[in-house]
Amino acid sequence: MKRAAGTYITITTLDEPVRAFVPSSLPPNPILEISPSLQEKLDSAMLSVGRLDGITSLLPDPALFLHLYIRKEAVLSSIIEGTQSSLFDLLLFEMEELPGVPLDDVKEVSSYVAALNHGIKRLHEGFPLCGRLLREIHAILLESGRGSSKDPGEFRRSQNWIGGTRPGNARYVPPPAERIAECMADLEKFINDAPEQTPVLIKAALAHLQFETIHPFLDGNGRLGRLLIMLILCSEKVLHDPLLYLSLYFKTHRDEYYALLQRTRTEGDFEAWIEFFAKAVENSATQATDTVSALFNLGKKDQATIKNLKRVAGTVLRLHHALLEKPILTIPRAVAITGLHPGTVNSAFETLQKLGIAREITGKRRNRTYAYERYIAILNEGMEPLV
């Protein structure tokens, strides 16, 4: 064992004795052994994050991209928790159209978007990243959907466990409820550089690990734990906008992810976890940069095609701009966004369909809905449900 990451204590829950794990305060003691090889991986990850931050600043309207990318992350993070919702479903739901999945699934994803937006807004207002803010975000995260009955915004008051049918055969048993406030207070101090400052990627890696180890809520720990990574990067001004999400990497490498979390607890091998985390950051930042580039190039190419229309180009460009933010639109919603006459919008959509840019997806003569399918396809990469 490299170091003690915490202690096991015996508790009784559901009438059986079990060993619950109480993590030690961060940073690890003895101090981390950051080898030249590990430092090189951390530096490479930070360079990738810098490139992502730089390319988004070059976009003509970063808010358009951000609006959709946040929704991609919401769907991915919820897929990990077992929902069947898709990005297409979420966009339909936000248009008040009923998607073909369980309503609780799409409500859960929608709540994730609201929770993330609330957290980022509070940080921009100068509110510290603390236990209170995490509880606020959790309350919104579980506001609707399947977790709404599991004490949204409140640390748990009963024992939980991970894996297994009961605590006695669980893969992991977090600390008892009476230790949650103490553990979360220690985590808050670490995030805010007490007793000492920690490099930002190492801080994010260790804070995510510690949060998942504490598992402070009855439900939503996985989603909030992944959100915590982004909140730290934004609060430390490493990223101006919340664009780096590790959910897809964690989803793709989920067996290694869970094994390393547990190995850190049992063997104190924080360095192996940090190395995995650095790979996740570099991979995710590079992928996000490629996605930004692909979406920007698609939008630019389609705009060039539209400009060749000459006489109606201005009208069709306005509708195309609306599709960049909301790539599924009904005629009434497009009218509201663009301010154009319904007949003009209808004609513009028909033009976009002839150009192969948008496609009508209902097959109806009335109440038509159009989708910017190639744009959605780029965002959908890696979004397949877990098997």
Level-1 CATH class name of the largest domain:
Mainly Alpha
- Find the count of extended strands (DSSP E, 2+ residues): 5
Residue share in helices? 55-70%
Largest sheet, spatial ordering of strands: 3-5-4
Overall mean pLDDT: 91
Structure description:
The protein is mainly alpha-helical and 387 residues long. It folds into two domains: 6-291, Fido-like domain (Fic-like fold, Orthogonal Bundle); 308-379, Orthogonal Bundle (Arc Repressor Mutant, subunit A). Helix content is 58%, strand content 6%. Strands 3-5-4 form a three-stranded antiparallel beta sheet, with helices on both faces. Strands 1-2 form a two-stranded antiparallel sheet. The longest helix is centred in the C-terminal third of the chain and has 38 residues, at 270-307. The radius of gyration is 23 Å and the shape is globular.
Topology:
Elements: E1 6-13, E2 16-23, H1 36-57, H2 62-80, H3 87-94, H4 103-124, H5 131-141, H6 180-191, H7 200-214, H8 221-235, H9 247-252, H10 254-267, H11 270-307, H12 313-325, E3 328-330, H13 331-338, H14 342-354, E4 359-360, E5 369-371, H15 373-379
Antiparallel strand pairs: 1-2, 3-5, 4-5
Briefly, what is this?
The chain is mainly alpha-helical and 387 residues long.
Features:
single chain, 387 residues, mainly alpha, Fic-like fold, Arc Repressor Mutant, subunit A, 2 domains, 3-stranded antiparallel sheet, two-stranded antiparallel ribbon, 15 helices, 5 strands
